[in-house]
Each structure stands twice: as structure tokens, then as C-alpha cells.
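Students often ask why inverse folding is considered easier than folding. One informal answer: many sequences map to the same fold, so there is more than one right answer. In these notes we will look at a single instance of the problem. The structure comes first.
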């Protein structure tokens, strides 16, 4: 009971660190490995009656942009910070670097700073293929100086079961080449069970 209470209290006092929930019961929190729990790379695993809290030794920083998706049996999961894609072993997927070309390179090391700049959804008829939708980021010029903008929307296709670590089998395919509202990627399931992107 105390562990549950501690887990709930941790969730209440650190909502800024919660990025997204996987299909299963695993949540990634924190930024990187340089800070102690709960601020550094952390993982919450929700079991039927307990919450396991542990350090998550990962080199990828999660500064704002985060998307993740996993198999329900936890045989694989992938996540991104907008600039690279990693697997459940915190290893970069084959062809997983260099997402969202043409933007400001200052964000490459720590990932993009704004939530909602990427989205991972399963392919409709093939659960082993995933679509990653991702924006690039530019520091806007006048009259919007200092306000970041997205100028391109891309998609990439991930096969998390390919090889040992998974791979990105198609990368940075341009969908929209226009000024976009930054961090506005969402998805919802349609009433006919098809996935619609908004």
C-alpha cells in the first residue's frame, strides 16, 4: 500500500516529467542519466498491484518531444525524441538517426524541446510495422522571432522486429511542406476502427 501511495504522490508532484504511456504498463520519465531519481532517466512499470520504479540507463535525452509504442506482450517497444529512434534496450534502431532534416541542428543532441512533435501509430493491417509522423523545427524569424515553427511534416516506417534491434525501413518521407502549427500531432481511432490522424 505504501508503494502505491508513493507512486501516486510521485505522479502528482512531477506531472511535467510524464511524457506518454505505452500500449502496455511502462512509462518513461526524466531527462537523461545525469540526474538522480526521479529527475534522471526513470521507468515506471505498473503491475496488477504494484508500481516498480527504477532508474533507466539511457543515453537519449527526453527534453520535451517524446513518442513511444510497444507490443502488448512487451516483446518490443520503440521511442523517439524527434531526432532519433531507440528500442527497449535503449539502443538506436538501424537507420534510426537523422530524423526531421532541414531544421535547426541545435536540438539534435537533446531531442526536440516541445511535446507533440512526433507520433507513433501501428500500421492498420500489420502490427509489426509502425508509422512515425514527425515535424522539423525552425527558430522563426520576424515577425515571430523566438517562436519556433515547424515547416515540414514527415513520416517514417519502423519495423521493431527486424533484426536484433529493429530498424527504420523508410525515413523522412515528406508529407507536408508548409508552415505548420508546432506540436500539434494527435491521433484518434475512428468509429469504424480505422486510425485517423489530426
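Output (designed amino acids):
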Amino acid at each position: 500500500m505504501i508503494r502505491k501511495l508513493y507512486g501516486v504522490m510521485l505522479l502528482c508532484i512531477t506531472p511535467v516529467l510524464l511524457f506518454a504511456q505505452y500500449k502496455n504498463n511502462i512509462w518513461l520519465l526524466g531527462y537523461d542519466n545525469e540526474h538522480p531519481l526521479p529527475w534522471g532517466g526513470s521507468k515506471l512499470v505498473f503491475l496488477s498491484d504494484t508500481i516498480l520504479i527504477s532508474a533507466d540507463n539511457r543515453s537519449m535525452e527526453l527534453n520535451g518531444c517524446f513518442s513511444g509504442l510497444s507490443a502488448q506482450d512487451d516483446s518490443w517497444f520503440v521511442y523517439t525524441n524527434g531526432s532519433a529512434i531507440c528500442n527497449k534496450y535503449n539502443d538506436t534502431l538501424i537507420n534510426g538517426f537523422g530524423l526531421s532534416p532541414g531544421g535547426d541542428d541545435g536540438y539534435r543532441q537533446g531531442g526536440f524541446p516541445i511535446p507533440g512533435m512526433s507520433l507513433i501509430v501501428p500500421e492498420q493491417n500489420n502490427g509489426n510495422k509502425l508509422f512515425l509522423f514527425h515535424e522539423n523545427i525552425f527558430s522563426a524569424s520576424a515577425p515571430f522571432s523566438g517562436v519556433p515553427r515547424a515547416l515540414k511534416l514527415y513520416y517514417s516506417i519502423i519495423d521493431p522486429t527486424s533484426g536484433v534491434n529493429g530498424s527504420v525501413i523508410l525515413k523522412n518521407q515528406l508529407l507536408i511542406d508548409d508552415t505548420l502549427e508546432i506540436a500539434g500531432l494527435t491521433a484518434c481511432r475512428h468509429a469504424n476502427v480505422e486510425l485517423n490522424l489530426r
